[in-house]
C-alpha cells in the first residue's frame, strides 16, 4: 500500500485543488472526465522520503524531469471527484532519476488507477516552468465554454486581434491576463506534439487555448492558474454576449488599453 507522510504545506495545496475542482464543476468546465490538474511538489519532499515506495511503471519522460515529484489527476477520473475523494481521483508520483518510469507514492486508490493520459504534456510544461518560470508550480487544463467557442471563430487565426477584442471588453482582463491568450493549433490529446505546441504558447502568453478542445494555464498555485482562465474566459463571454445581442461592442480604445499597463 502506498504510504508517505504529506507535509502540511502540501495538504494546503491539495485543499486548494479541491476548491478549484468545485469551481470547474459549477462552471460546467469539467464535464465527465474532462480536464486535468498537476502540481510540481518536488521542493516539498526529501529524496529519501520518496525512494522505494510503490512499483515503478515504465514511461518515457524528458530526461531532465528525473527526480520530480508531481501531483496529478487520474485518467478517466472526474475532476468533481477531487472535491471529496481526491485520493481516489489523483495521485502524487515520483519520477525516477533516469526519467524512464514513475511510482505512485500517495493516492491513486481507485481500482485500475493511472495518471492522466496528458502526463507527458504536464511533465514537459513543468520542466519548461522550472527553466523559465520557476515560481509557477501548477498546471490546469479545462474546458472553458466561451474560450472554446472562440477557438472555432475566424478570429482564432488572428491572435493579436482576438486578444485585443477580449482585452477591450473589461479593464480587468487586460490587467490580470496581461500577456493574453495563445491560439494554439490543434494537436491530438496525449501526444508529444500537444506538449510542444503548449510549451511554445507559454513562451509568450498566459493562456494556451487549444484549438477546438480547451484551455491550459499555469500559476504559482492552482488558484492562480484558475484566475488566468477565469478572467480570460470572462472577456470572451462578454464579447460573445455583445455579438449575441446583435452589436459590435465599442470596447476600450487602444490608448485606454495602453494606459492600463501601469497596473500590470
Describe the structure.
This protein starts with 7 loop residues before the first helix and ends in a 5-residue tail after the last helix. The protein has 10 helices and 9 strands. The protein has 264 residues and is α+β, with helices and mostly antiparallel strands. The protein folds into 2 domains: 1-117 and 131-143, Class II aldolase/adducin N-terminal domain (L-fuculose-1-phosphate Aldolase); 144-264, L-fuculose-1-phosphate Aldolase (3-Layer(aba) Sandwich). It has a 9-stranded mixed β-sheet, with helices on both faces. 39% of the residues lie in helices and 17% in strands.
From N to C, what is the helix and strand string?
Answer: HEHEEHEEHEHHHEHEEHH
Give the C-level CATH assignment of the largest domain.
Alpha Beta
Computed structural class: alpha+beta
**Poorly predicted tracts of residues:** none
- Report Rg: 19 Å
Looking at how many chains there are and whether they match, the oligomeric state comes to single chain
Number of strands: 9
The major sheet is characterized as: 9 strands, mixed
Enumerate the strands of the largest sheet in spatial order, edge to edge or round the barrel.
2-5-4-3-1-6-9-8-7
Q: CATH topology of the largest domain, anyone?
A: L-fuculose-1-phosphate Aldolase
Distance between the termini: 48 Å
Strand content: 15-25%
Write the CATH homologous superfamily of the largest domain: Class II aldolase/adducin N-terminal domain
The chain-level mean pLDDT equals 95
The 3D shape can be described as: elongated
Number of helices: 10
Q: What's the domain count?
A: 2
Helix content: 25-40%
CATH architecture of the largest domain: 3-Layer(aba) Sandwich
